[in-house]
Each structure stands twice: as C-alpha cells, then as structure tokens.
Design goal:
By secondary structure, this protein is an alpha+beta fold. It contains 8 helices and 20 strands. Strand 12 and strand 13 form a beta hairpin.
C-alpha cells in the first residue's frame, strides 16, 4: 500500500528480497508507514516480517525495489546514520555494564557531554519506570526489567522510529500482557513511530493502530485491527486472526448465501450468481438457541470452559462449528444455531 500523498515516514516500493539459496523472502512488497503510528507486522515464522524490519533498520538490503524515509531513498544510508533504533527479542544488553552504562552507551559513542548523558539517562529511566535502578547489574534484573532497559537504551537516542522484533517473547503471559499496555502507552506519550514484529495475534490486536498480515513474503491484508478481524480478505487472514469457522458456500444473489445446506441472508453483494465462496463466521457470533428456534440444529460434541465463556463444538449434519458462548449445553445435547446476517462474512475463493 503506497502513500500517494507522500506523507509517510517509511515507504516500501516494489521491494523483493531473495537470499543466496534463491529463497524468496519478500515478494514485491508495497507498504507505507505513517508518522506516529504503531504498526505491527504479523504472521507465522518465515513470512518475511523480520526481514522487513531489518531492511528498515539497514541490516539487510533488498534485492530489488526501493525504501524511502521521509521521501528520500535510504538504501545507501548505513544503519548508524538512520534515525531508527531496534529492540531485539534477546535484548542484547551488555552483561558487564550496569543499567546506567547500558543506556548511556550510544550517547557515549556520540561523545555527548557527561551532564547531557546523565540528564537523558535519568529521564529515560523514569519513562520506563526504572528510576533508582541506575547501578543495578543486568544479572540482578528480571526479564521485564531487562526488556525496559533495552527499550530505554533505544529511546535515549531520540529516534524517529523504534523497531521492535518480538521483544516480549521471553516473558511470561502475565508480564507480556502488562508490557503490551505499557508499550502502547509509551508510544502515545512519545509520539514516535513504532514498528512491531510478532506472531501473536492477540498482541497485535491489543497494541496496534495498523496491522500488516504477512504470509510467504506477501502482504495478505493491511488495515485497522477491527477491520482485519471483522472483515478478513481471505481464508489465511481469517484463520490467523482469531478463531473462525470457514465453510464452503455459494452466493445465490446479492445478500443471499448458501452454506451448511440452507440459505442465509448476509450483507455482501457484488458476486457472480452461484459463485463459489468462502464463508466466515466467528465463534462468538453464533447464537445458541432452543433446537426448535434455530436456523439449523446440531449435536454438541465438545465442551471446554475458557473462563469468560464456554467453547463448544457442534456437529450440524457433518459440518462442525466452533461456538463461544456464556451459555452451555452438555456433550450429546441438541441445540439450535442462529446466525445474524451481519455476522456472516463472504470472501472470494483464494486463487
């Protein structure tokens, strides 16, 4: 997706990347990253998201295409001259230095004054909630504290953009969730661009202004989290972002789809008559009713308590639906299933 108005901070223009073994990692990527945006590159391992990040940082060069920063090509600009800093998954902190010296390292390389370094380090430590930790050894810090030090070391140099390569991957679940909110809050406070790499869909939905879903070196969808979740463009996105029931169907006309052996009203139009389509229904969008009141009925074949809801699998004449509901029916019970038109999402079959 190109920014035709030229206001993007970073633009990828027809960027491809092939490694020496002829493996195609990025396939003609076009992407615009706006100023002050929290953009997440989301996808499975090997989809090209980290390579995209490394190209922005200057650690990789594209095989073809161009990368612009503030409307200027940066392909010949070395990493240390880019106003971009990176936080890695393993933090890459210096174990022989204390917290202060780790954060001050880049400023000392720039030969900044001692007074300026002290002022910047202390203000940055306050920003990441580590005031008073200046002289702690890295080995004395928890994983979450080490992650904050890594972020502080990147932010103290006042970059225009922060690149984060799965920085929460080593943390436990509770701390991950806490740090997701802290990072988003930090990004809003700083007003700089964050580009975040993850394979965790919940993390992407929680933190991002924009999500770029990638697979096999290709951008599958690019947009707001709510749009990608509610209107996936293809079966891959529907499967990767949240849980989905994906079924074969046919468009019998505008606003009318056939699947699960019957006609349903929907909100989609513009398809060929009787065109084969993929039908997506999210588990939480299936209503469980009495068998005699359902659009169709089925037998409960699985039941799991998930805390805030029950996850049930329901066999509807050979097609098994996953349903999330605060109501439950025991395994073997008969239930009715009802699906509202706006909860049915129609996608063209992938080529």
């Amino acid at each position: 997706m190109l920014d035709v108005n030229g206001s993007a901070l970073v633009e990828f223009r027809n960027v491809s990347k092939t490694f020496d073994d002829e493996t195609l990692v990025l396939d003609n990527i076009n992407l615009a990253v706006q100023k002050n945006e929290f953009l997440t590159l989301l996808g499975p391992s090997g989809c090209g998201k980290t390579t995209t990040l490394r190209i922005i940082g200057g650690f990789e060069q594209p095989t073809s295409g161009d990368v612009l920063y503030n409307n200027q090509s940066i392909l010949k600009v070395p990493p240390y001259k880019r106003r971009v800093n990176t936080v890695f998954q393993k933090y890459a902190l210096f174990p022989h230095m204390d917290v202060y010296d780790n954060i001050a390292f880049g400023l000392k390389i720039k030969k900044e004054s001692k007074a300026l370094i002290e002022d910047k380090v202390k203000s940055t430590l306050k920003m990441v909630n580590l005031s008073g930790y200046e002289y702690r050894k890295i080995s004395q810090l928890s994983g979450g504290q080490q992650q904050r030090v890594a972020i502080a070391r990147a932010l103290v140099n006042e970059p225009e953009m922060l690149l984060l390569d799965e920085p929460l991957g080593a943390l436990d679940l509770k701390l991950r969730k806490e740090m997701q909110l802290e990072l988003k809050s930090m990004q809003r406070e700083l007003g700089i661009t964050f580009i975040y790499v993850t394979h965790d869909q919940e993390e992407a939905l929680t933190m991002s202004d924009t999500i770029v879903v990638m697979n096999d070196g290709v951008i599958q969808q690019h947009g707001r989290p709510i749009d990608i979740y509610n209107e996936p463009m293809n079966a891959f996105v529907a499967k990767f972002i949240g849980e989905s029931n994906i079924m074969d169907g046919f468009m019998r006309g505008d606003f009318r789809a056939e699947f699960l052996g019957r006609d349903f009203r929907c909100v989609d139009k513009g398809f060929e008559k009787d065109e084969a389509v993929d039908v997506v229904v999210r588990p939480e969008d299936v209503d469980i009713v009495a068998p005699e009141h359902g659009m169709l009925s089925g037998t409960v074949t699985g039941l799991i308590f998930k805390g805030v809801h029950y996850e049930m699998t329901i066999d509807c004449g050979g097609t098994v639906l996953t349903v999330h509901s605060t109501d439950k029916s025991e395994i073997g019970g008969r239930v009715g299933v009802s699906i509202e038109p706006e909860e049915i999402h129609i996608m063209r079959k992938s080529q």
